[in-house]
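Human: Note token order:
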Amino acid sequence: MITIRRRYKDFDMVLFAMTFIILLIGLLAIHSATQSKGLVLSESYTLKQLTWLGVGILLLIITIRVSYHKFLDIAYMLYIANILLLVLVLVMGHVRLGAQRWFSIFGFAFQPSEFMKISLILALSSYVGQKKGAMDSLESLIIPTILMAIPFVLVLVQPDLGTALLLVPVFFAILLVGGAKPKYLIRMILLGLACMPVFWHFLRDYQKQRLLVFINPNADPLGAGYTIIQSKIAIGSGGLFGKGWLNGTQNQLNFIPERHTDFIFSVIGEEWGFLGALMLVLLFFLIVHRAFNIGNLTSDRYGKCIATGIAVLFGLQVIINIGMTIGLMPVVGIPLPLVSYGGSSLLTTLIAIGLLLNVGMRRSTF
């Protein structure tokens, strides 16, 4: 009983509260972005997101209550299961917008690549934790590199360039915290950069076009550059205080494609203005800060790796998504955590938050 009380004494209520504030902001933004579609209640995006949220809260509670070491015990099993799902989705997955990333189950889309983010973090953390400081040789990096490379390739061929690239910095962050020598990691990064010209030839035509449009959105204003241009117009027109919820003209008049998913920050910027968008960014920053803080405070190598991996994953998703909407990043299909519509992304993020809270509660137990 004393141990349980001590654990919940270390429960990060601020992190928990900020998560649900952002979730509320997301629901309001999703409703605003989709209410003009005139869908019946049973087809409402907001209702579907609420359904996923209910499942996500259940997973969050389970993740908090079960020691993260229990998840590490089955980390490789989860990783292999997720790899099999990534292979299976390439064979019989649902095709949408030219990509084969989803399973369709009772009208809900399930995206295995989202869950691969958590599976990879757990698998890498399990491996690095078991090495107990023996990560100072080049040979010790072979297994974790293979663990990262397999899902990277499988996700890339779906194709899902954004999610595949997210796995790379998470991989390096966990290895760095786990004791890998920086000089080896730098060499790997330089090798990867040297391979970029070769990597370019494996990209689909629309992916190449997105990267070129990032350099000059006006090069194709009615095609690949259209969404970026309209997004910047929407955010800029929001001014300091915004036009008000449900009153964004770019949003309500359907000028912004995918505004309930990848470009939902455009809706927030237009309707809530600079101050509203800044408040959301500050909430994201505080979550990432507390995630790194949890990793720094725990003396357990496993927990430190998990917290660091999640902090980097969460932070990069926020930076890339918001960067896309304001033209500072290429469009690579990264959702805004806890805000964008999408069940797989929401469940994955809530599991990640649960793991953070879990590590924070048990940081002095192991």
